[in-house]
Amino acid sequence: MEPPYTKILVLVLIFLGEALAIYAEMIGARSHNVLQNPFLQTFIKMFLVIIIAGALLIAGYMLGYKSFKNIWIVGVISITSIIILEPILAYTIFKQLPTRGALIGLILGIAGMLSALFL
C-alpha cells in the first residue's frame, strides 16, 4: 500500500512538469519572436528546461500509475493541469487575452474534461 502523500506528490510532479514544459515553449516563442534573441541560444536554454519538465512528468506518471492503479486518472491529472496552467502562463508571459474563438475553445475543453471526470 502506498503512503497517502504519494498521490499529492503525483499531483505536484505532474503540475510542475507541465508548468515547466509550457513555460519553456512560451518563453522560447517569446524570446525568439518578440525579443529577437538568436534561435540556437533560445533553443538550447529552453531545451534544458524541457529535459527537467520531462523528468518530472515521467516520475509523476510512474508514481501515479503505481498509486492510482489507473492510467486514465493520471492522464486526466495531466490534461487538467494543462487546461489550468496554459491560459495562466499565456496571459502572464504574453499579456494577451484570448480571442473569442480561443475562449470558446477553452470553455469547451473545460466542459469536456468535466464530463470525462463526472459523467
SSE blueprint:
Blueprint: H1 5-33, H2 39-68, H3 71-94, H4 100-118
Helix pairs in contact: 1-2, 1-3, 2-3, 3-4
Provide the domain count: 1
Mean pLDDT: 90
- Which stretches of 5+ consecutive residues score pLDDT under 50? none
From the N-terminal CA to the C-terminal CA, the straight-line distance is 28 Å
User: Which structural class best describes the helix and strand composition?
Assistant: mainly alpha
Write down the overall geometry. flat
Order of secondary-structure elements? HHHH
State which percent range the strand residues make up: under 5%
Describe the protein.
The structure is a single chain. The protein has one domain (5-118). α1 (5-33) packs antiparallel against α2 (39-68), α1 (5-33) runs parallel beside α3 (71-94) and α3 runs antiparallel to α4. By secondary structure, the chain is mostly helical. 86% of the residues lie in helices and 0% in strands.
Keywords for this structure?
single chain; 119 residues; mainly alpha; 4 helices; flat
In short:
The protein is mainly alpha-helical. It has 4 helices and no strands. The two termini are 28 Å apart.
